[in-house]
Write a structure and sequence with these properties.
16% strand, 43% helix, seven-stranded mixed sheet, alpha+beta, two-stranded antiparallel ribbon
Length: 275
Amino acid sequence: MEENKKRKSSKEKSRVTVKVKKKAATPISEKKDVSLKKSVQASVSEKKTASPKKKVLPINDTGRRTPEKKIFIIGVALISVFFLVWGTYVGPNYFPKQGGMEKTKEVTVQSIGVPQIGGSFQLVNQDGKIVTEADFIGKYMLVYFGYTYCPDVCPTSLTVIEEALDMLGDEASQITPIFITVDPERDNPEAMKLYVEHFHPRQVGLTGSVEQVKAVAKAYKAYFSKSGDGYDDDDYLIDHSSITYLMAPNGKFITHFSHGVEAQSMAEKISEILK
């Protein structure tokens, strides 16, 4: 009996051991999966570490140049020819040479500065005396072109000149106001004298022949022209520029004052110039 019990107990132990071993064993399918994963990972790592293959460009079997190469070669050739021609023929004649060699022609550029206004003239004053620009050398001149029949523009401008000279006080003694007619056919010396008496006491009135007046107006860039009907009558108007010119004691142009300038502004500007 005891032996039978021992045999049973030993069989049961062996069964338990087999069962435990069976539970602890890894299935074959799982082993295959693990080995497959490892092989995949190894192949991936090998691909990553492997150096990339260089792309092999296709080779022209015929050995001909590609269109891009042809364009490049033609461009280089054209540029070379251009510089060759320039250096041989054009360059030496275009740029001045040094060291006693041939030079290009010098170009004189005249700078634009003070306008060429004013000049010589010969006219008759309100007293019938012939005067020229030389009679006013040493004095500043305020020159205005107009005519005695002018309805409004001329009297207004001459009044502004008179007021500006009054504002200058003693400085005004350096300036001679001059009124030159653009209507010599009607403005004779007598008419000029009656007219200028209504303005500054030192106002000078100048007239002359049609040719003389045109010449001095051209020198001062002054415009005038008869307007309207009745050219043959004494009743006509004259369109003319309304500018007052300030001339230096040597007869050179300094500045000008446009129509509508105030006497105060004119006086201040002249005072700055006289200082």
